[in-house]
Amino acid sequence: MHCLTYFVLFQDGGASAEDTSMTQATINSRDVLKINLAVTKPNSSITWSFLTQNHDIGFQLVFENQKVVVPFRRVQSHKEIQEGTHPCHSLGTYTVIFDNSYSLARSKTISFNLFVIEPEEVNSNVTSGVVL
Question: Where is each GOLD domain found (predicted)?
């Protein structure tokens, strides 16, 4: 299995289903895509928004590569956009995992937005941001 890893130091703003500036990646069969997000301020939040073309994908969020904060599940992201938020009570690296390791033959094309939103941004309802 191969693993692609992206590192994101900080993202401001938020994601929405209407956002057309999503990052795209292809995840080969039997591969995973890991995206690291650095949370540097207490009470920040991680938000995600993603969709795939034609087939499902596995999704999981872990903290410091060991504590599962959003358990693995296969999601029907080809049928509807998947969105969510996780409050980060601990500082450190959170890893978003898009998992296609269960697929023996199909690569998956995924479009996604990931953001770390700091507390004052949550309170001021900031909605613009930089996309990975």
Answer: 1-116
